[in-house]
Amino acid sequence: MSGCVHVVGGGLAGLSAALEALATGRRVVLYEAGPACGGRARSYEDRQLGCRIDNGNHLLLSANHATFDYLDRIGARDTLAGPGVPMFPFSDIRSDLHWTLRLSRGRIPWWVLDRARRVPGMRLRELLGLVRMLRAGEGTTVSDCLLPGMLADRLMVPLSIAVLNTQPEAGSAMLMAAMMRESLTLGGEACVPWFPRLGLSESLVDPALAHLAAGGALVRTGSRVSGLVTDGRGRVSELVLPEGPGRLGEDDQVVLAVTAPVAAELLAGPLPGQAVPDQFESILNLHYRIALQDRIGGDLGRAGFAGIVGGIAEWVFVKADVVSVTISAANHLAGRDSVSVAAQVWDEIVRVLRPALRPSIQAKTQRGSAPVVLPSAPPPNRVLREKRATFAATTAQQRLRPGSRTDLRNLVLAGDWTDTGLPATIEGAIRSGKSAIRALAGS
Ligand SMILES: Cc1cc2nc3c(=O)[nH]c(=O)nc-3n(C[C@H](O)[C@H](O)[C@H](O)COP(=O)(O)OP(=O)(O)OC[C@H]3O[C@@H](n4cnc5c(N)ncnc54)[C@H](O)[C@@H]3O)c2cc1C
């Protein structure tokens, strides 16, 4: 195929498609509506906080092979940080209990037999719930599978909310099982947590753009595509661009890698009836401007993050300039004002961070000879609400996810909302970009 590949959308799905197309020797033009690429995984300078932040904390697992291939392709694997072992510190703030889940490296889950490594208070019988999840059928929810107990309360419920961005009563057990099959069931080697050392853009976006530029791809930011015109012969013949119609060559092909709501709008004319997910869940991220990285020790200091049970805060990340908190499936907080949420979350994370303060700092603080490390009032903060962070990973929405191919022969779809077999994740987005280019090659 000699024509150009036009990629609409500069999130990770679009960047992945553009890189894949370039690797197969195609000419590439990428159109991004916003001022910068990255979409829902981006970093930016926050003037109010006076530092650079990510729109939201993102965690990767060593099992995310497409993401690591992508990082290798753009030479950015070493921009990630993490503990290097499958460890997950947790705090239950209801009972002031702090523990670390330490998975066995291999496939045999020895860790479940060791009280020092597993979830405190869990009973082995509860593991049956995980077996039920792995065997779940299409209409089954996460709650249908889990057995009541501490394994659910202190691990599987928080994990499923993070993975699915949907409450367990509605979350698809099949999607959760898909994640488990690619991680937990393969053993700890597949579950080592990673996150960007500096920021999402520094790891996943800027090196990709540099690679695309070096390969001659054209990336046009501030270039919103507002329509797809078809020629009556089953192909897209024109993209409606801010400066006017952009006519496509006879062999040109289009990857639509925009968000689900934008895809629904753009496809309504040329492909009426095209199914696209239409329910969404929000994610709240709170960034507190406080530099604690050198002051936090123990497992939290080593991992760089911890899970939180028993409050509204769910995950806390201790970064160079900020302490950041994620609350997934956060539609239930839509009516809460940001000031009160920031105060409640700060109160919760102080209970997680205080026991992890390096002992010398704790001692000095008690004698009053050192500045207060953890103020009781929240430090300057930014509350970011991604209202449509991901599609709601319910069993009904799962049925609306389309594959890459469409009825138009030079148009394919990409994005975390397409039928990747995974919940809406970086891994799913990157895989969708690759699948889209493979589908084009076969069209
Ligand atoms: C707060 C938050 C936390 C998350 N945490 C995690 C995590 O820990 N781990 C994980 O794996 N995943 C996580 N995710 C999910 C992950 O960020 C997404 O799955 C992924 O970034 C989606 O990429 P995408 O390319 O499919 O979509 P997007 O990133 O939404 O990209 C779509 C792009 O299309 C552009 N666009 C839209 N309309 C047009 C148009 N008309 N013309 C041109 N361009 C257009 C948009 O501006 C955008 O750049 C999180 C998401 C959020 C929001």
Brief account:
The chain is α/β, with parallel strands linked by helices. It has helices at residues 12-23, 65-73, 127-134, 142-145, 150-164, 173-182, 200-214, 260-268, 298-303, 338-353, 359-367, 395-398, 426-441; strands at 4-8, 27-31, 43-46, 51-54, 60-61, 80-81, 87-92, 97-102, 193-196, 218-220, 227-230, 236-241, 244-247, 253-256, 280-289, 305-309, 315-318, 322-327, 381-391, 411-413.
Number of strands: 20
- Would you state the CATH class of the largest domain? Alpha Beta
| Number of contiguous helices | 13
- Chemical compounds bound to the protein: flavin-adenine dinucleotide
Outline the low-pLDDT stretches: none
Overall geometric form: globular
Tally of structural domains = 3
Give me some keywords for this one:
binds flavin-adenine dinucleotide; 443 residues; FAD/NAD(P)-binding domain; SQase_HpnE; oxidoreductase activity; FAD-binding protein; five-stranded parallel β-sheet; FAD/NAD-bd_sf; 20 strands; alpha/beta
Give an overview of the whole structure:
The protein has 443 residues and is α/β, with parallel strands linked by helices. It folds into 3 domains: 4-79 and 196-279 and 393-441, FAD/NAD(P)-binding domain, CATH 3.50.50.60; 123-190, no CATH class; 280-388, no CATH class. 30% of the residues lie in helices and 22% in strands. It has helices at 12-23, 65-73, 127-134, 142-145, 150-164, 173-182, 200-214, 260-268, 298-303, 338-353, 359-367, 395-398, 426-441; strands at residues 4-8, 27-31, 43-46, 51-54, 60-61, 80-81, 87-92, 97-102, 193-196, 218-220, 227-230, 236-241, 244-247, 253-256, 280-289, 305-309, 315-318, 322-327, 381-391, 411-413. The chain has a 7-stranded mixed β-sheet with strand order 8-7-16-17-18-15-19, sandwiched between helices. Strand 16 and strand 17 form a beta hairpin. Helix 1 runs parallel beside helix 7 (200-214), helix 1 (12-23) runs parallel beside helix 13 and helix 2 packs across helix 13. The structure holds flavin-adenine dinucleotide.
